[in-house]
């Protein structure tokens, strides 16, 4: 069974990605108390490749994942691609379809289930804007991917 | 240009869908002050059709959209389908792929741009769980669709 | 090389599906002169299965394809599915996504290339409306699939 | 309710894109009489980005849309992407899948519903060929996207 | 690094699904020697749901996965869906698109990497026929999904 | 009706792509006896375009297809794209999604049905690894596409 709201990995990742910097302390304090690993960053691009690699790099550097183990990179990769699907809604493409994104991302790793044997899971949340490559011609977008580690 | 964080239609819709009932007053008070229209509801199903119709019915009954005008129903419909893509991440199917969802949804209609001529837009946010049709075998999921009215 | 406009299989199929009955004589006279096989029909449904089977049945009954040969049914099937993708634009689903179609279809079989060795090809064209299962809440839609026989 | 055949926005857009130059006068005269805005053009490419930007540029230059308003560009953009899905049938990709298109496009903006409150809609039609990047190795393709303005 | 050919989890799963019963002893003997868990079965249906549940049931009953742990069912589920994508090639649908499958499946769980810390992975292989719901109107199809446990 | 196991075009193509060089003689001897045309090759890339063109080039050079006839190239092309869908499972993209493949491929052309009128068909099989552009961070993948010639 999933834990209650405050123990939810997706909810925490989404709030971390979506809240303004001055609002995020509540979330990070809570994640620190849970002893969950996490990181946060920003990336803007017309290339999906750059979105994927920015998140992977941040997660490695902040020790959210162990880059030496493929099983950890594999879990993270699929969580990223699932989050990107929420952002792109249909065609998992940016520049080829003449659009660009400006995103904040959060990666959270922890134990979201009451049963300890369910072990660790990872959540990737993306929040920002998507639109034409012209300033202001854009609307908001969100995505969340979750995977077992 | 999009308004600052508090004036963002997607962010408000996501928070309305995701926050617990005791936390949502801050959002609804804010949306009331903006004089934006909105509604909130819950739906659980293995059938996407039921998800779509529950959101449409709630939006009509709460006068978020005018069900007599196809252009309003068309705008809402595409926002729902885009939100569902974030929830399903890849294949826009539930029961056929042996999975079910339990979702809270929010629909918000307002003016998210500084330029008044950008007019009204609609946001549909979904938050909840997706998984096997067995209690507890599930993880979180989110989706957001935005369209011009 | 494809033949000029009047010898184009896709163009003929689209016009046959799209023109009103009183306008179509020009096309059918032309197809008869070319000695190409063709048929036309109507189908409305929330179920894709019914769309596919209506077109298959019409093509068999009018001897546009030989239902005894899998290679002919395989060629037709893929042309139908490609045409349906133009109609559904993204998710190849109708009722599951709470939408319905009212379509006219045309199937044309002939030799559209200057080089006779390119042999016979088949075109499936669909034209009509797609929308909510409520009269009038709909817009037009089109699709064309082409395959070698 | 949609207007009868001659008042249909999608049908007009498809005919404008598909008919030869010497045949199109009937359509343009009719569109002028309706006081609908429209434009027509050609584009060939292995890059979807170029297809999208050519149509956007033509629609802006011919005042079919107001490029200063994101809501108009947003409506046009989604109509283009939907039309492209009919052209690509499955994977919304060209060069990455080793194929190229030669297309004529038409954009039409008008009021296709009997009820005046349904307001303005936009239709993007594409017609041409798709195939290998070798002259002659190609077949026809079509796409139509429709959106409320 | 992946182990050499005989230690490959996907290759073993594909051969187990594809070889005739009289040929499979070589594979099962080898899997037994590796002390890997596996099962094999057959399923024919126009409903994807039945394909998914047949594989899940076989994997549970043969103790290839522990049905009490969501993380194991989650790993298996995604491997199944990936394998189904190879079978359906494009639209992850059967009956809705008027087609049916007759499949043999194999699920294999083991350690396919030289580095022991990469731990256990799961492979789902499908092999059989796909086609119209008429005997003989069908061709072969294959799919393979791999996930970390 | 499809022929028995040894006469199956997909099974032969998959084994030809998947077996080690020292194991493949059994398959090639059998294909030679059937007087079926076939070829085998290797390709590694982050670009799908290169995968498609490598297979097309090998099939042309080995006279598995006649590159002068579009109908043969069209049949081969769709078989390749279907095989690629098994390899990519969801998004038909490699480098854009920050992943790369190392594949062996086989193309087989023959008569897989008991009824001689079903004529020639073509099978494209792919087997290898997919993963991050870092050596060792990869797992196996397979794909099979079949089409009538």
UniProtKB/TrEMBL annotation, chains A, B, C, D, E, F:
<protein>
    <recommendedName>
        <fullName>Hut operon positive regulatory protein</fullName>
    </recommendedName>
</protein>
<dbReference type="InterPro" id="IPR036482">
    <property type="entry name" value="Regulatory_HutP_sf"/>
</dbReference>
<dbReference type="InterPro" id="IPR023552">
    <property type="entry name" value="Regulatory_HutP_bacillales"/>
</dbReference>
<dbReference type="GO" id="GO:0010628">
    <property type="term" value="P:positive regulation of gene expression"/>
</dbReference>
<dbReference type="GO" id="GO:0006547">
    <property type="term" value="P:L-histidine metabolic process"/>
</dbReference>
<keyword id="KW-0804">Transcription</keyword>
<comment type="subunit">
    <text>Homohexamer.</text>
</comment>
<comment type="similarity">
    <text>Belongs to the HutP family.</text>
</comment>
<comment type="function">
    <text>Antiterminator that binds to cis-acting regulatory sequences on the mRNA in the presence of histidine, thereby suppressing transcription termination and activating the hut operon for histidine utilization.</text>
</comment>
<keyword id="KW-0694">RNA-binding</keyword>
<dbReference type="InterPro" id="IPR015111">
    <property type="entry name" value="Regulatory_HutP"/>
</dbReference>
<keyword id="KW-0369">Histidine metabolism</keyword>
<dbReference type="Pfam" id="PF09021">
    <property type="entry name" value="HutP"/>
</dbReference>
<keyword id="KW-0805">Transcription regulation</keyword>
<dbReference type="GO" id="GO:0003729">
    <property type="term" value="F:mRNA binding"/>
</dbReference>
<keyword id="KW-0010">Activator</keyword>
């Amino acid at each position: 069974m999933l834990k209650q709201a405050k123990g939810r990995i997706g909810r925490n990742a989404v709030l971390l990605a979506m809240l303004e910097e001055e609002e995020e302390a509540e979330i990070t304090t809570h994640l620190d108390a849970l002893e969950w690993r996490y990181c946060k960053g920003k990336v803007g691009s017309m290339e999906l490749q750059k979105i994927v690699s920015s998140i992977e790099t941040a997660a490695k550097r902040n020790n959210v994942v162990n880059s030496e183990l493929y099983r950890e990179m594999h879990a993270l990769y699929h969580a990223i691609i699932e989050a990107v699907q929420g952002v792109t809604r249909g065609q998992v493409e940016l520049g080829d379809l003449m659009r660009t994104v400006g995103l904040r991302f959060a990666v959270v790793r922890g134990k979201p289930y009451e049963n300890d044997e369910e072990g660790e899971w990872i959540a990737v949340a993306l929040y920002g804007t998507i639109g034409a490559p012209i300033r202001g011609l854009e609307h908001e977008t969100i995505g969340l991917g979750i995977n077992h580690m």
